[in-house]
Amino acid sequence: MPLFCDVALPVPLDQTFTYAVNGVVPVVGARVLVPFSGQRLMGVVLRIHEDALPEGIEAKPVQQVLDESALLPDELMRLAAWIAQYYVAPLGEVLRGMMPLAAEVKRQVFYRIAEQGRKVLYEGAERGSSRRSRLTPEEQNREYAVLNYLESGEQAKMSALRSAAQANKALLEGMVRKKWLVREAVAEERDARRLERVAVLVPEARLPKLNDNQTAILAELAAVGGRMRVRDLRELQVPDSTLGTLVKRGLVAIEEVAEAFHMGGVGSAQDKKHAHEHALNEAQLEALGTIAAAMTKGGFQPHLLYGVTGSGKTTVYFAAMQRALDAGQSALLLVPEIGLTPAMTGQLVAAFAGEVALLHSQLTPDERAEQWHRIRRGEARVVVGTRSAVFAPLVNLGLIIVDEEHDSSYKQEDMPRYHGRDVAVMRAKFNGATVVLGSATPSLESWANSEKGRYKRIEMLTRVANRPLPLVELVDMRQEFQETGQDQIFCRRLVEEVQATLDRGEQAIILLNRRGYSFVAMCRSCGEKIECENCAISMTYHKLASRTDLHAQPGERLECHYCGFRRAVPKTCPKCQSEHLYYMGAGSQQGEERLQEIFPNARIGRMDRDTVRGRGDMERLLTRLHGGEINLLVGTQMIAKGHDIHGVTLVGVVGADFALGLPDFRAAERVFQLLTQVSGRAGRGELSGKVLVQTYHPDHYAIQFAAKHDYPGFVAKEMQYRRWMHYPPFSVLANVLIQSDKLEEATAWSAILGRWFQLERLEKVRVLGPAAAPIVRLKRIFRYHFVLKAERRQVLGEVLRRMLTHAASEGIPRRSLTVDVDAVNLM
């Protein structure tokens, strides 16, 4: 009987694909390269079988088997199936996200001539219509040069066509759309090992007569023990040929070795020493005892660790991880953002040395593959990373910790749209492991689970060494304007407190939760706002790059923070040609500029997406902050999460309450969490802290409870509104997004689904919509949506799958439908 395998491919289709096995028989869980729709894709084998195919269907053969054994253990395969079921996502997309091994598969794009292209070349049938197109005569000539080059039928890379015919990607893709060319994507196996060249001094070699450059290299090698990286030798500023001459003469040998991985890490030596020693107070010991008891007992044990900011949750995490390692198990620590990994990594390396592995998106593909394989081989038993690290192939996983579990960064915004926190809980369930969700402001969903007894709640309600929580003072900006008659970024009280803090030699942080200089550019004459040409969003004004903008391009510009489109700042209004353009709203760049004017002697730093782009930027900035080189830091919410800088005694909050006006039922929860988290950066050392919150809504319950550090009070109030409006945690929710680059298609498809929801007469699911999404056009894609609410997850999932089946029957492409279960962002 012929042998077949079912393969999950990373395509937006809710199905698997069957291929014939003609050579090496792959195992379930291995990767294979297979042909699919004119491409060569990598997929994961789900089943080997001899089932007969339907009559008239012939299976294409597997082209290459990449793995001798299953790459993913059984528990991760089960987790992938659960994610696909729960989040209504294609299984192939889920499995692709689980394996950060893109570096091991080289993807290349080839072009070859199509029949229509050959007809154009030989008969000139399309020459007339081509000249009536938008192409210039030069571009038309390049098209024919491409066809001439490909006339033999051989395929060619874009680089070859660029050299032979001066073709660019836009020209070639245009020819593909006209069906003159066929575009083929080919995947091939690639060696992703990171190697570096090392120069080695050959012992007992006879030294001939040497010139000065050769002598310098040999002397340097001898001084460092006979081995040195070739790239480090270049610092001697001698010609590269000099080393080659020494190699030919047998005086130096060149070896290729595995390149060392830089773990990074910031923080003072005292911080790292403290993390390593795990000096626990009574509350920490009690929390650790509860977690350790669950680990000893074994089996799935979920916990919610509710601890105020500065209560020492991180120390409890590390002590629990040490218990896991002592028991021969491994541990996983998730953090919400890459910005938190440097400080956490520094402490982990101090505590666990070579046992630590790092996983996040700012590693290079080769680095991610290297770290992933270290984990899979059991060489690293402690893993720290962002949400995708939840899929790390740890051996004998015993403990999962989700730090800042409330953070929305744990929700994946691309397919598959999983929530890292909830996946961590399910992974612990499949592994029979203990999971700890930690936060000073737990999500309402996690709090509700602890109230129902699903999670065991652990509370740490005092700071380490009984340090007081910071005093929070609200500044009513309405009254400030009445008294001063001016609309200033920083109120008088905040300016006074910052000056006093700097005079005492202490540090201050100011949260200004908007990037750029101004976030609205408006014409005073006609009221027109300058919007992005790709998105229905006002463009943000960026002024001249400051000294902290390490990656910014010089000059003024308008930028869309959603699609990245940039344009020059216009001198007149695009609509009415008025010269009276006005920039409203202050971003972090303007905040930095204003602070430099007010405090000329301050050592100011800025932390936002413009200053922290690369992998090492956050590490360098935090090192300067820990060392006291910066004494006044301004930034977006990046500064609010998890940083432990003992010299900070003052925190200022500017404009955080604007989020209360967003069309989002979680708005109050997010503002409360942000205020509480950023307040927690003050007074973490020996000196007490103070927080000043500038607000136009001083009476709002979220701000009032945040000022009193009263999380239970806020939860009680917010839960009332959620219960009345049937929002989570009193219901389950999904956001269904319909997208198309044509407005008529998006509206037509929305109408089709709207009629289906009406005809189905769903009694247990509430359907809101269709309606234009809050951002109706994003990256040139028009967006409409439905919001579905139900009391039971099973009912919601069944309705969503039936909806997708109906959409397919109506010809709505699957890639144009996004199903976001447990949606965090409804924008």
The CATH topology of the largest domain, please? Rossmann fold
Number of strands: 33
Major sheet size, sense and barrel closure = 7 strands, parallel
Q: What's the CATH class label of the largest domain?
A: Alpha Beta
N- to C-terminal distance: 53 Å
Averaged pLDDT, please?
87
Instruction: Tell me the structural class.
Output: alpha/beta
The percent range for helix content is: 25-40%
What gyration radius follows from the Cα positions, in whole Å? 30 Å
Under CATH, the homologous superfamily of the largest domain reads P-loop containing nucleotide triphosphate hydrolases
How does this structure look, described?
The strands form eight sheets. This protein has a seven-stranded parallel beta sheet with strand order 14-15-13-16-17-12-18, sandwiched between helices. Strands 19-29-28-20-27-26 form a six-stranded parallel beta sheet, sandwiched between helices. A five-stranded antiparallel beta sheet has the order 2-1-4-3-5. The two termini are 53 Å apart. The chain has 26 helices and 33 strands. A hairpin with a 6-residue loop joins strand 23 and strand 24. The radius of gyration is 30 Å and the shape is globular.
